[in-house]
Amino acid sequence: MDPAARVVRALWPGGCALAWRLGGRPQPLLPTQSRAGFAGAAGGRSPVAAARKGSPRLLGAAALALGGALGLYHTARWHLRAQDLHAERSAAQLSLSSRLQLTLYQYKTCPFCSKVRAFLDFHALPYQVVEVNPVRRAEIKFSSYRKVPILVAQEGESSQQLNDSSVIISALKTYLVSGQPLEEIITYYPAMKAVNDQGKEVTEFGNKYWLMLNEKEAQQVYGGKEARTEEMKWRQWADDWLVHLISPNVYRTPTEALASFDYIVREGKFGAVEGAVAKYMGAAAMYLISKRLKSRHRLQDNVREDLYEAADKWVAAVGKDRPFMGGQKPNLADLAVYGVLRVMEGLDAFDDLMQHTHIQPWYLRVERAITEASPAH
Fold it and tell me: Is 110 part of the annotated catalytic residue set?
């Protein structure tokens, strides 16, 4: 295959990971665990008995004072216990993450790879990056799965390979919350053969938007079924729709296509000759391919309008009453949408997106949350 064609095939978003939609439903939750509640009792002499000889006003004041004191006591006790539980969960998560040695095989400009990096950085999971040459792909010759991202997780003597960005994220999040062995967790996301809308056989993964948690763990993460369903819905939306708006927008004109490939060559792992081929022949090819993508996904003549509509649809879903879809901190849907959009930074499409939609405040909040969680990345 021509080197330019191989670069193009590797680097357009559909080539770095799979996002074909299946009709399967997630598996049921794991067995329910019981919940423990808080309980407290007050002892000592009743203030009613102590004040019985006094005036009714004194009796009422004493009862009110005791009620207020007990309320403050239980509030403080609950608050301190909640802090202890949070500290215990954070310590447990840190202990789990420290047992993993992660290596991410990626193209830096791939939106699916960017999603995984956003997740790893936000959860402060240390990882090594191996930039894959999109022509030779020698860095992933060990794998029969030839797409990126690929994550290799070393846990003690055990090494696990995780494929597909959404599977990587779901499996690692399940691991951090539940503490189940990663070797067991990845069996919950079986690889399956499917046929895409071009009639080509591809590999898909079951349950990939589903966290394999019991009810108690799910309650800790989501607080309710609605939040869980919402997160899954928008994670899939990012894969099935948002990511397909990237190529038509960053390769919209010959000038934009050339600028995009200049960025790809600078950030990617190319030799001098490969870089020159990719920059000029790849840009020309992707400009033409972007026109076919526009037709395939039934985009408007001005593809920016589809990008703007998607961004504002996302902002409306987040709403005005919470900083993130996850509430006070980003959830997996926030990180997925941010990761997809981030690959356009520095390009005209990104600047236009920030200027013509209401997404910038949310985007900057997610960026800040990731930076504060993992300043090293």
Answer: yes
Q: What is the pLDDT of residues 127-157, one digit of tens each?
A: 999 999 888 899 999 999 989 999 999 988 8
pLDDT reading at 44 higher than 50 = no
- Active-site hit among 16, 73, 105, 112: 112
Contacts of 194 (CB under 8 A, 6+ apart): 20, 22, 201, 202, 203, 204
Sketch out the chain's domains with CATH numbers: 87-373 (1.20.1050.10)
Strand partners, 224: none
| C-beta of residue 221 within 8 angstroms of C-beta of residue 211 | yes
Angle ∠(111,100,127) on CA atoms, nearest 5: 40
- 343-349: long-range contacts, CB 8 A cutoff, minimum separation 24: 343/109, 343/110, 343/111, 343/114, 343/246, 344/246, 344/249, 344/250, 346/263, 347/250, 347/256, 347/259, 347/260, 347/263, 348/256, 348/259, 349/246, 349/249, 349/250, 349/252, 349/256, 349/304, 349/307
Task: Decide: 293 and 285 in contact? Cβ < 8 Å.
Answer: no
Q: 169 near 116, Cβ under 8 Å?
A: yes
Cα-flanking dihedrals φ and ψ of residue 343, to 5°? -65, -15
Candidate list 16, 110, 175, 350, residue with the active-site label: 110
Task: Provide the 3-class DSSP secondary structure of residue 358.
Answer: coil
Active-site residue identified among 16, 38, 105, 107: 107
Per-residue pLDDT, averaged over 339-349, amounts to 97
Residue-wise pLDDT for 274-304, tens only, equals 788 878 888 888 889 899 999 999 999 999 9
Residue 18 has pLDDT above 80, yes or no: no
Please count the other Cβ atoms lying within 10 Å of the Cβ belonging to residue 203.
Answer: 16
pTM score of the predicted model: 0.77
* 16 assigned to active site: no
